[in-house]
Design brief:
heterotrimer, A: alpha/beta, Rossmann fold
Chain lengths: 122, 90, 897
């Protein structure tokens, strides 16, 4: 059965790129592009994996992550965080908020695929 | 008002200006006395002939003209009205 | 024989001429021409509104009835004028330094800006002035009727009430037209002043002409005329001493207190120096006005038939002798006297009514929100116009209801006695520091009641309002309460009796209550300001600006003073404080300056209340307390100084905190710079890398997909380049290496270009332009300026959050500068963000709308290079930016960059 992945990201070109890579790899990709109602999107999709950008319009990715983790149903869903700000403190914040993995833009497509596969397999 | 001791002798102009201010203060008092003066002539009881209206007119208008002239002379010499009248030497 | 029609024609021509003169004077003043408008001669002549129709006609009537007594009405003001050094000089100085708008405003301002007191004075002034206006209307109709009666060609007499109504209407129109041109009552009404100065000349000339005609034409020369006086019923000097003294004092007091005299003497005063001329010239004018009164009376009594109304001798003598043109001149003189009085009285009273009654009520009813949202300026102007109409109407109604029966002089003196009640509070306020509000209220109240009971009500005659029994046996049967024999003072002249008791009780109560009650701090400070006005014409009770919010103040001020004046005032204050932009620190000095500017428009009490609505509680700053320096203040000095230091430190601390906050904010931003620039560079790079890998690694892509992905890579590469360009642009601008390419061009073309480049005006984003204002030639670097415009327009397009976003572009000339405002209808930029939006990498909030937050920083640098400025304009309907260019049109082409 196809694994469901929810991509929360606001740059249309990046959405297009990640969707392309993951669907070719056999994933069922749904996307969502703003922060306000990201949590509703998570509930609606029941994803096996969430890819979450840090800078979103409306709400920061860290806040959304906290919501995901505080919801018992999704507490253990793997979350891959993406950020365009390559600073150490962003990484720390992501880990503290409960991100499963953390990735800095720009990334190589292979890297993303590896990460996604390993996160769902584990 | 604190008054610091100023110089004993004032500049001639300043002295003159202050006396003019004094005169300006005095003028309405003199005017009031002049205008009330005709009331003293109101005594018909001692049998003297009564004062005529024309006489009082001549007096009042005369006094009036004098007051206007003196007021004009004073205000001409009280040049700069911006100065406080009591500004001592500071 | 001249007909009534000729009179009406001449009269109408005269009125048209007056309108024209007023209009021309207003125009000359507005254009800054006509320094002669501000000459001491005009000032002196404008004072002549003291001489109303009552003196023009009534003086002769009074002389015919009681000899020389009419002189007292002129002698009082003469003494006041030649004694200008005592009182008038101080009154004018106080009026100018405190921007006083009326006699009510002066008293209210002196006694702690008390509006209650102002309302009281206003009501008293209206009650005292209404009969007087009625009197003027009566004199015009009476003289008109006299003229008509002597004209054989008219069969039916004109309706008196209709005449009065037309005169009242005309006067109201004139007064509204020229008396409420500007809201700032403190500004001079040049048109009105010019018109009344002209009327002053006309009425003097008319009276002198009649006098000359009577003495040389009818009396047979000076000697013969004197003989006639000696032969007349008024040949002997039989003056009541108490009336002579009492009336002189009364007229002197009224001269100082009459609202209309205060208007021309203090409010319309252009220059304190004018008082020096008026001090002797006005007594001279009064002397000439009264010179021929007795001859006219004596000859009139001799020549005219028994029972002729002596109040109209000035008119009937020339008519009787067939000198129609002289009669017309005389009529015009009386008409001038009546109209100039009504005009100025209506202006003075309407200022009082609107500032002290209408505005406070309106402010109260609309709550604190009014000063922020309502159009205060229009409300104030409307209030003033309606008040003028109301006051003239009141005078007309009084005239109709009273039937115009009483002899002219009687009501004039009743009026005088009414307004004279202000004198103790007025003089006490100017000369006595301990005078306070409670005392003033009590004194005025008692004086007013006594005047009402002993003079005003009895003036309607026995049994009219007060029943005969009250006259005979006193109120409640108490003999000592008889209105014309108070406390058993029998056998006195009723007028002198009422003036004596009202003034005496007024003064005594005022002094006693002042002594036993304690003034509030604001009263004490204002007291010091007024009494010692010559020592320090500087400070007034101030504001502690700790909580003041400059932007709210600005919004309010714009509504009252108009946008341009308010912005100029705020910008100048900010400059003085060493700040840029339009929002100065709300220091006590600034608040005080603002309050004074506002009080010129709406009166001291209202201005104070408006500012306190925004600033919060009225506290008195310590610098001002120190300025008072009376006995108590000296005792308080030590603690005051401590307090002053604390306040000063607090202010410094607040400024430091502000600076610190800004630094921290900047440092956070600088810190965010790396992260921002990293984000801005990495985002397009991510797409580029991902799609180039897809193109490289994926098999089976069709042609459409390939070209689409290549196009994405291309677009993102361009985005990267643009960002780098912006960064370089900014760095070049900042380092001053930029070469300007100056060209000349039309602002409208430049804006067309910018609007097109920024996406044009469309249904979902409307751009409102003002084509006529855009017709300005510019000589500057047009490309750079267009860059600024494009930035501002696209910012509005991106950030304006209104439902139907619109941007209006408003160019205008201000001084030599070209000013272009870009105002949108969104929610604007929060005050705490306004200071940093021009910094690099600042974006409002975390909203992501493209762009790296360099746009405004670049704009600021460009404008600095072009010699202009760009600033955020607070207090508009939405976000507003103001671009200011120096007068570049005049810049020669060859100026190097």
């Amino acid at each position: 059965m196809e694994k469901r992945v929810l991509l929360i990201e606001d740059e249309p070109n990046i959405i297009e790129a990640i969707s392309f890579i993951l669907s070719r790899d056999g994933w069922d990709v749904k996307t969502h592009s703003n922060g306000h109602d990201a949590m509703e999107a998570v509930r609606g999709r029941q994803p096996d994996l969430v890819i979450l950008d840090v800078m979103l319009p409306g709400r920061s990715g860290f806040d959304i992550l906290q919501d995901i983790r505080s919801d018992a149903e999704f507490a253990s869903v793997p979350v891959l965080m993406l950020t365009a700000r390559g600073q150490e403190k962003d990484r720390e914040m992501a880990e503290r908020s409960g991100a499963s993995r953390y990735m800095t833009k720009p990334f190589s497509n292979a890297e993303v695929l590896d990460a996604v596969r390993s996160m769902v397999a584990s | 008002m604190s008054r610091e001791p100023g110089p004993v002798f004032l500049e001639r102009r300043t002295y003159r200006r202050r006396r003019m201010a004094d005169a300006a203060r005095l003028l309405p008092v003199i005017g009031a006395v002049l205008f009330m003066l005709p009331l003293l002539w109101l005594d018909p009881s001692d049998g003297q002939p009564q004062t005529s209206t024309t006489a009082v007119m001549f007096f009042v208008f005369g006094a009036w003209i004098v007051l206007v002239a003196v007021a004009a002379a004073i205000s001409r010499n009280l040049s700069d009205p911006q100065d406080p009248p009591s500004s001592g030497g500071r | 024989m001249a007909t009534l029609n000729v009179l009406i024609l001449v009269c109408l021509l005269y009125v048209v001429f007056l309108f024209a003169i007023a209009f021309a004077a207003d125009r000359a003043a507005r254009r800054g021409r006509g320094t002669w408008l501000r000459s001491p001669v005009i000032y002196t002549l404008s004072l002549s509104i003291y001489c109303t129709a009552w003196t023009f006609y009534g003086a002769v009537g009074s002389a015919a009835r009681s000899g020389l007594e009419y002189l007292t009405i002129y002698l009082g003001p003469t003494l006041v004028m030649i004694g200008w050094w005592w009182t008038l000089r101080k009154m004018v100085r106080v009026g100018r330094s405190q921007r006083i708008t009326s006699v009510a405003d002066l008293i209210s301002s002196r006694y702690g800006k008390s509006n209650l007191l102002a309302v009281f004075v206003t009501v008293l002034a209206v009650i005292g002035t209404t009969p007087y206006i009625a009197l003027q209307l009566q004199s015009v109709t009476l003289s008109f009727a006299t003229f008509a009666a002597s004209d054989p060609t008219t069969t039916d007499l004109p309706n008196q009430q209709a005449t009065a109504l037309w005169v009242a209407l005309g006067l109201a129109v004139f007064t509204i037209l020229f008396g409420t041109r500007n809201l700032d009552a403190n500004e001079r009404h040049h048109g009105v002043v010019m018109a009344i100065a002209l009327e002053a000349v006309v009425k003097l000339a008319a009276l002198l002409a009649v006098g000359v005609f009577v003495v040389w034409g009818l009396g047979g020369g000076i000697g013969a005329t004197l003989d006639r006086i000696d032969a007349s019923p008024i040949s002997t000097w039989e003056q009541s001493g108490s009336r002579w003294v009492g009336l002189t004092m009364l007229s002197a007091a009224a001269f100082l207190c009459l609202p209309r005299m205060f208007q021309v003497m203090v409010v319309e005063n252009e220059d304190e120096g004018h008082l020096r001329t008026a001090a002797w010239a006005f007594p001279g004018y009064l002397m000439l006005m009264s010179l021929f009164v007795v001859p006219i009376a004596a000859v009139g009594l001799d020549v005219l038939p028994e029972g002729a109304n002596p109040d109209l001798f000035v008119l009937t003598l020339p008519l009787q002798e067939g000198r129609d043109w002289l009669a017309i001149l005389s009529f015009i003189g009386g008409f001038s006297s009546a109209t100039s009085m009504v005009i100025v009285a209506a202006i003075a009273l309407s200022t009082m009514v609107s500032n002290h009654v209408v505005m406070p009520v309106w402010l109260h009813m609309s709550g604190g929100t009014a000063v922020m949202s309502g159009d205060v300026r229009n409300v104030a102007l409307l209030a003033r116009r309606l008040s003028i109409g109301g006051i003239v109407l009141l005078g007309y109604l009084y005239f109709r209801l009273s039937g115009g029966g009483t002899a002219l002089a009687a009501i004039g003196l009743v009026s005088f006695a009414g307004v004279a009640q202000f004198l103790p509070a007025l003089m006490g306020g100017l000369f006595w520091r301990a005078a306070n509000r409670t005392g003033a209220l009590a004194g005025l109240g008692v004086g007013f009641l006594v005047w009402l009971y002993c003079l005003f009500l009895p003036s309607f005659g026995p049994s009219a309002i007060l029943p005969q029994s009250v006259f005979d046996h006193g109120l409640f049967g108490q003999g000592w309460l008889r209105p014309q024999a108070l406390f058993g003072a029998e056998g006195m002249d009723p007028l002198v009796h009422a003036v004596m008791w009202s003034m005496l009780l007024n003064t005594v109560v005022f002094v006693l209550v002042s002594l036993i009650s304690f003034p509030r701090p604001v009263e004490r400070l204002q007291g010091a300001q007024f009494v010692n006005v010559f020592e320090h014409s500087g400070t007034t009770p101030g504001w502690s600006g700790g909580l003041a919010r400059s932007e709210d103040l600005m919004i309010m001020s714009q509504r009252i003073m108009g946008a341009r004046e308010a912005q100029a005032l705020f910008a100048a204050a900010a400059r003085n404080q060493g700040l840029g932009g339009y929002l100065p620190e709300p220091t006590p000095d600034f608040l005080q300056e603002l309050e004074r500017a506002l009080s010129g428009s709406v009166g001291a009490a209202t201005a104070h209340a408006m500012i306190s609505q925004i600033v919060g509680g009225a506290t008195v700053s310590v610098e001002d307390l120190l300025a008072v320096a009376d006995e108590t203040a000296q005792i308080m000095e030590y603690s005051s100084r401590l307090e002053a230091k604390t306040q000063e430190q607090e202010r410094t601390a607040r400024q430091l905190r502000e600076a610190n906050r800004k630094l921290t904010q900047l440092s956070v931003q600088k810190d965010a710079f790396l992260s921002q620039i990293s984000h801005e560079l990495r985002t397009p790079m991510t797409s580029i890398r991902a799609f180039s890998e897809i193109l490289r690694d994926s098999d089976g892509l069709d042609g459409a997909e390939k070209s689409k992905y290549a196009a994405i890579i291309h677009d993102e590469a361009i985005r990267l380049t643009r960002l780098l360009d912006d960064l370089l642009d900014l760095s070049v601008l900042e380092n001053g290496q930029v070469v300007l390419n100056r060209q000349s061009g039309r602002l409208s073309d430049l804006l067309d270009r910018a609007v097109a480049a920024a996406g044009g005006s469309s249904g979902d984003f409307e751009i409102v332009r003002d084509r006529s204002a855009e017709d300005v030639m510019l000589m500057t670097d047009l490309d750079r300026l267009a860059q600024v415009f494009i930035n501002l327009i696209s910012n509005a397009r991106k950030y304006c959050d209104a439902e139907r976003p619109a941007l209006s572009i408003r160019p205008k000339r201000e001084g030599g500068d070209v000013v272009i405002d870009f105002v949108d209808n969104g929610s604007g930029i929060p005050t705490d963000q306004q200071s940093v939006i021009f910094e690099k990498f600042s974006r409002i909030g975390e909203t992501k709308a493209g762009g790296a937050g360099l746009g405004l920083a670049i704009c600021r640098e460009i404008m600095a290079r072009l010699g202009g400025t760009i600033a955020y304009l607070p207090g508009q309907s939405g976000a507003a930016f103001r671009v200011t260019l120096p007068d570049v049109a005049a810049t020669p082409r060859s100026v190097p960059a």
